[in-house]
Amino acid sequence: MLAQASPWHAHAAQRIATELAEPLSVPARMEWTTRPGQGPGAAALCPDLPGKRLLELGCGPGHNAAHLATRHGSRVTGVDLVGLQVHRARSHYGRLNNLTFVAGHALHYLHATDEQFDAIYSVFGAVGLVAPELLLPAIAHRLKPGRTLAFSVPHPRRGGRPPSADDRPRRDHVTLPDRTRLPVARWDFDAARWEKHLDRAGLWLASAQEFHDPRQGRWPITLLITARKR
């Protein structure tokens, strides 16, 4: 019921209604923003990806997970709240080796699994949409020491607005393929506030990068955070 009540279910349902559920070619690059070619690609995760165990929180249709499993030889699990998204991912990339897609809440998955990961990542996924005081400690518990959490989120200053002034989520929206806008709660933090929450969870901030899209004005639109487990 939680997944079906979310705007992400509506988003996936519209995608499925207009796209063929068929195998896709594996993307040549890992993307962190909505503008292809921006950002560090897979290098943000770790330098020695072959054979490494990776977890994506909010895998959507599976493009990044497929890239990492096929182009870098990693063993990847992609988790998504919405079963329709997992259906899309499996229809596109279920034929590939070293790749598993699971339907479920990111927090529930982290609590249920006993695996330790070499990197955990989220691209406009669970990080920022699940309470950080709950999600970040659960992520840290499942990361091997010294390993990486990397996540991209909508930049808190996109459109010229100020970042959150406290630790509460604020109202945002999701734009569906048909341009309908549905409300969503988002923890819209700047790098300093993310650093505070990361530190509380036993992670240290390694880098914070801003990315722009000239088509959307002069304000940055994506914030990419990388952190390491102590």
Summarize, please.
The protein has 230 residues and is an alpha/beta fold. Helix content is 26%, strand content 28%.
Can you walk through the features of this model?
This protein is α/β, with parallel strands linked by helices. The protein has one domain: Vaccinia Virus protein VP39 (Rossmann fold). Helices cover 26% and strands 28% of the residues. The protein is built from 6 helices and 9 strands, in the order αβαβαβαβαβββαββ. The protein has helices at 7-18, 63-71, 83-93, 106-112, 132-142, 191-200, and strands at 53-57, 75-80, 99-103, 117-123, 143-154, 170-175, 181-186, 203-211, 222-229. Strands 3-2-1-4-5-9-8 form a 7-stranded mixed β-sheet, with helices on both faces. Strands 6-7 form a two-stranded antiparallel ribbon. The chain starts with 6 loop residues before the first helix and ends with a strand. The mean pLDDT is 94.
List keywords for this structure.
single chain; 230 residues; alpha/beta; Rossmann fold; 7-stranded mixed β-sheet; two-stranded antiparallel sheet; 9 strands; 26% helix; globular
